[in-house]
Amino acid sequence: MTRAAAALDTVRNVYTPEGVALRLPAAGPVPRAIAWIIDTAIRLAILIITSILVSLLGKAGFGLYLLAYFVVFWGYPILCELLFDGQTPGKRALELRVIADDGAPVGWLASIVRNLLRTVDFLPLGYGVGLVASFADPWGRRLGDMVAKTMVIHAPRDRPSLRPPVEGAHAPLQPLQPQEQKAVIAFSERAAQLTQERREELAGIAAPVVGSAGALGVLRLQAVANWLLGRA
Amino acid sequence: MKHAVMRQEAFVARHQDEWAAFEAWLEVRGDSPREARAKQGQWEGLRDEDVPARYRRLCQQLALARSRGYSPQVVERLQTLTQRGHAVFYRAPPPQWRRTLEFFLAEFPRLVRAQRGCLWAALLLFVVPLVGSFVAVQVSPELVYSVFEPAEVASFEQMYDPTNPERKLGRESGDDFAMFGFYIMNNVSIGLRTFASGLLAGVGTIVVLITNGLMIGGVAGHLQGVGHGDPFWRFVAGHSAPELTAIVLAGAAGMQLGLALVAPGRRRRVDALIESGKVGAKLCLGVFAMLVFAAFVEAFWSSIGWMPAWIKFSVGGALWTITLLWLGLGGRGGSVHATLPRDASNVRPGAAAGRIE
Prior knowledge:
heterodimer, A: mainly alpha, 2 domains, two-stranded antiparallel ribbon, 4 strands, elongated, B: mainly alpha, 12 helices, about 70% helix
């Protein structure tokens, strides 16, 4: 990766004691804000349901409601992060996860710190401080994350499949540079996520390598990828 | 085109059973050590003692896959497995509930005493405005209206009306449990915010301490001045010890956080903040417990109107004594980092360093 690309990338490389780098894709403010909105909606729903239930209990019920309010206001993010491995329901929906900045799961003390300090990140209105901090930080952390030594990463649920998209292998008509080989393999593995038109458009760029364009070009390019990967 | 290194497909074919076994182990035994211990006999797959070696192999395979430029999908799968393995090996220890008592009896008071400077600063920032506004309202009673609205002052007077001995002290309405909920919500939130706003270079904490001092002193001074002092003091005597102390402790926690930002010493600023964030979180656990206790006393004990003053003041005095002794002496004889005794002769047999006996 070139230096310019590295500067733009929000991936944090954490070197583990085993000497291998874990690449942690930091999440930016927008998905985090959406996750927060989902969580806020859930918290409001919990409070509304609680208020309906406790209204049957009279004045003591009001005390119960205030206790529930306290737990939902301060405890909800801490409890969720500890019970669901760094994911509040909102973060789960957006496939985000809170982790310690060395790649380990978030600890309970760190979770308390980062959530108590929401008080400051929320200032002056709607996470203004947190937003500025996350723009200034290379890994999009708000102040609470910095003090707690945590970060929020993208943690997609689905596992990539390793099945070949087409059968058969075919040598390219001309030798390929390593970068070009990578591009062809990446195309083959991402092909399932693209529309047929987009596949043909991309395969068209590589037409000289496979000798044809259009739908046939797509199939041939995937066969070239199989050949590069050593598939029979 | 010749390939000096193993082709991706051959690499995957050779190792994928290994990866699947590791993944199966993560699924079944990786989540909770306790659960894994309980189901020791039922697991047929990869043995626990082989997992670290497998994990290191996986790390090596990930490094190989990257350096050989294998496809993003394969690297991604290896990275996911490695990361999950890393999470199992390096996760923070879960909270130890058995140590809860030791924390509150020994570690917390030690932690408080370790923040001596910030503690004195917070105490002064709270007590000076409190005493100042109390005295000021005694001298010129109209000053209370510069802190409170007239309606608020009227409601305070009504809450502590000595001509109505039947009513509950310190509240307009509401039963004990409702007020318990209110005190938890209100007071604990203030305590936690007092700590958190210390991150603004301590300014937030200072503002909270001073305003709370001014308000409490103002109310007390006004009620004393208009002759409602007796019910007021009977009300606050009980919960004053845990509540006021907890606010000062939350202030100290906030001050040390702010100090880490302003004067990090010979550390990077962010490292100083991380360190004092941990201290602050632990202090907040204690503050939380104290304020919950205070809310309990305030809701169910302080409001009892018929209780003779001497009982109220004795209980209040006892709570002050216990609180100060606890914070002043709790965990003495051990340090935050357990140290070896320098002289073996002063260690009684069976006495463990750092334990409450």
